[in-house]
Amino acid sequence: MRRIRTAVAGAAVICATAILPAVAGADCSLPSASGDGLSGGTTQTFSGHFDPDLNGEFIQIPFQVGSGITGMRIRYCYAKPSAATADDGPTLDLGVYGPKQAGEDNWTMADRRGWSGSAVKAIGIGQNGYTPESVYNADTDPDPEVVAHGNRKAYFPGYTTRAYSPGPIASGTWAAELGAGWIDPDGAGVDWKVEVVTSTDPAWSNQPFVADPYAPYVANSNPGWYTGDLHVHGEMEPGNAPMTQTFAKGFGPLASNGSGLDFETIVDHNNDNSRKILGAYVGNYPGKLIIPGVEVTTYHGHANAQYSSNFADFRMSDVYRWDDDGDNVEDGSELTHVRGPVDPSSQFEQVLAGGGWSQVNHPTIFNNAPAACRGCAWSYTDDQTNFSTVSAIEIQTGPAGLPSNSPGTMNPFSLSAIEYYEHALATGAHIAAVGSSDDHQGGDATGPTDSPVGRGATVVHAAQLSTQGVIDAVKAGHTYVKLFGADAPDVELSAQTPEGGSAIPGDSVTGSGLAVKIDVTGAASSVRPGNYTLDLLQDGIKVDSNPVTGDGFSHTFNVTETGRYSFELTRAQGDQTMVEAYSTPVWFTYEPPVVATKPSNAFAFAGFKANRKKGTATLKVKVASPGKIKLTGVGLKNTQAKAAEKNQIVALSLKPKAGLKKKLKKKGSVKIKVKVTNQPTGGDALSKSKKVKLLGKKAKKHRRR
């Protein structure tokens, strides 16, 4: 059903009305929200019913925006069937798109104006910017749905709601998009209602938004190991802590109850609005690095698109357009199918092409209880994922131990995430292991499974602490994970081959052996004391283990088998084994050492010819290998060694000295013994002797008979 009201001379006039089915919107009430500053535009109301077969799909609802509009308020609701429980109740998410670009059949990411999921049910979009932090973080809203978050989820007339982009309101056909996050496949579906109120009131344009965009920068020009959190949520998801609180907690020193981080990546669900404002924050934290990204939230898994110029399409399932005229030529329904599903690998490729890195988040979390976190576990197939397009996988998300405030057992989803990571590596892909907190509340834990910023943490080896430095480090796999946070012991892996090759986590190296040296610092004085053990893993399986002794422990493992080699640092806590650190592997290819073989020094005499007129002679020798060959003999002049090639016949000259010449002249012939020495290049010398006859002019000639 669509109902449009236009304000004319202060009176509300109904322009068009359609008949609403009796069940649609029956139990759905729009949330209360101020009507201040909503004059001069139109009110458009849409309602309908989604069947269970739309579970996980996206439905775009067109609405019209006239000229001169300065702002709008959008409210929506959906009805939970009376028999629904907390686990099977529906969830519809909200996003908004500006006018379609020419030639488009549906609204694309290029038209996006924002996405708030199901966090808020009333939002504003205008030329003005966001409420000041003092207002956003205050506790004045009377609505019980938002009071737990102060004003963080409240709608304020004249201000753009965080999660949406402020700016000019172009006329044309816009769309509100409802994402069917969950409709019970065995249920009766869900009723919904959307209201769009546009306005020409100057209250929406008296404080025009001025961007302070993020620009990549260098926080520390020195190479080294840096610790960060690669999955921290900002305030562009209404209800989250202000970013000043998040940065203060994350960058604060460990000694002052901070998290001791060097860098944070700020990601918000399906929006990148933080990039428009982070320029105002980066200068407040000298020596610290902030990197913006996006958490791509699909209904079959979550991923991070970290600092890419290309915005990934989070709508990886079917997209429909809703109209209430019932003129779909296929079946007369209100829905038109405008786009089929896409694989996440296609969006990862876009992220990489835009200069960022792709990161699969919490791949196994609540996979045994999906109602606890709809769509959070990665359920895409390996073919849909294509691990060659994945830069990183979270092996730790949130608290490494449960409960988070006083852990007594290892988080089972951390262990299963490690298994998934090793599964991905077994396909041949080179992927970095990373860890993060998934923090939303700036360190204010609100439950036993909440984790403050920095727990877990990722340690990267970067050429410098900069936007590009961290990007390059993660893509190269120069990482290891401190699952419990930055206060875990430091672990450093380096590897050497006998041939001089070297590697750190993420590198590939070939040689006749690999010496894997691992240094552990700070285990004895750890804030979590206990018996630490250093394990060497080959292809994810423990092949060697050593107890860690002292605060400065070092051990070298020598291996000679092809495989990927990484470390795991564990701590014994009662009958529990806690994983404190886990690394990306070094990929090693074994090649047997080259055994040097000496060249053959063999040679053979290949002919002799005496020169009667000159009293000289030539001795021919055939050599097997390249090198030099020389002839010597009593009464002969010394000769220079001659160079020889492989299988070459070399002619050696015999030239008599004066004494031998005189004897030869007197007798006419002389028998002598010569010595031939063959010296192949890189081989051993070989000498042979041979008796030959020199002939002079008086030598008798043999007569033929």
According to CATH, the homologous superfamily of the largest domain is: Metal-dependent hydrolases
Unreliable residue stretches = 1-26, 144-148
Sheet-strand content, in percent, reads: 35-45%
Structural class designation: mainly beta
The biggest sheet, with number of strands, parallel, antiparallel or mixed sense and barrel status, is: 15 strands, mixed
What's the level 1 CATH class of the largest domain?
Answer: Alpha Beta
Radius of gyration: 39 Å
Oligomer description:
single chain
Number of domains: 4
- Indicate the CATH architecture of the largest domain: Alpha-Beta Barrel
Q: What share of residues is helical?
A: under 10%
**Coarse morphology:** elongated
Q: Kindly state the number of beta strands.
A: 42
Discrete helix count = 7
Mean pLDDT: 90
What is the end-to-end distance?
131 Å
Please name the CATH topology of the largest domain: TIM Barrel
